[in-house]
Specification:
Keywords: Endoplasmic reticulum, Glycoprotein, Karyogamy, Membrane, Nucleus, Signal, Transmembrane, Transmembrane helix. The chain is mostly helical. Helices cover 89% and strands 0% of the residues. The longest helix is centred in the middle third of the chain and has 128 residues.
Length: 237
């Protein structure tokens, strides 16, 4: 009805015919407007004619209007998807750059780790060689010290009976027997001194073994720390 009233009002305005004042606000009270129009035959004829044709006019314009609406909707959807795809492309490019950077960092980290492992292998091999050499020297020194101790035991075993004989015959001893006692005493002192030196060498080699073991432990701890760093980096990224 409002559409038919507006069409009638527009047509009558071209003929300089004043429309009823009740039709100035048809959005709020269209009934009063129609009642006023019905009192004027010319106005009513114009209104009723448009009222009969308005449905046909709307039907005739529907397809064009629907097409325009669909085209507008399609254009809006196309722009929206274009914006979304553009944004996704930017995100993918950003992620690709981050991936390349991370791969470069991972490659660098793995290269450094491989280098550390190689250095550790070389250090371990060198330390193992040194340890074998020290153990070999220690074995030789130990065997030598054992031989010296056995020899000292034999000498002491020989010395004790001779000392007893000398004590039994001390009153009748001569200068030759006294010289023999002095020589045995000097020999014992020399053997004891040699054994003390051997024991000092053993202690020094034990210190070297301890230092090599500490180096090996430190190298292993460094490798374990690097392996933990790799595990953490893999979990984060």
């Amino acid at each position: 009805m409002q559409y038919a009233i507006r069409l009638a009002k527009c047509e009558l305005a071209t003929a300089n015919l004043a429309f009823p004042m009740e039709c100035d606000d048809i959005d709020h009270d269209v009934g009063k407007c129609i009642e006023s129009i019905s009192r004027i035959p010319q106005f009513w004829t114009t209104y009723s004619g448009y009222f009969r044709e308005v449905s046909q006019m709307c039907f005739a314009m529907r397809y064009s209007l629907e097409r325009d609406l669909l085209e507008e909707y399609n254009r809006n959807v196309t722009f929206k998807y274009h914006h979304i795809l553009k944004h996704l492309h930017e995100i993918m490019m950003t992620l690709r750059k981050e991936e390349v950077n991370r791969l470069s960092q991972i490659k660098k980290f793995l290269t450094n780790m491989a280098k550390d492992v190689n250095e550790l292998e070389e250090t371990t091999s060198f330390n193992m060689g040194s340890l074998k050499g020290i153990l070999s020297d220690f074995q030789i020194i130990t065997q030598s010290a054992l031989s010296q101790i056995i020899h000292l035991n034999e000498e002491l075993g020989k010395f004790v009976p001779n000392a007893r004989i000398i004590l039994d015959e001390i009153n009748n001893a001569n200068e030759q027997q006294l010289s023999t006692i002095k020589e045995l005493t000097v020999t014992s002192k020399d053997i004891i001194q040699v054994n003390f030196e051997k024991l000092g060498q053993i202690y020094q080699h034990l210190q070297k073994i301890d230092a090599v073991a500490r180096d090996i432990l430190l190298s292993q701890e460094q490798v374990y720390d690097n392996m933990e760093d790799v595990k953490v980096y893999t979990i984060l990224y």
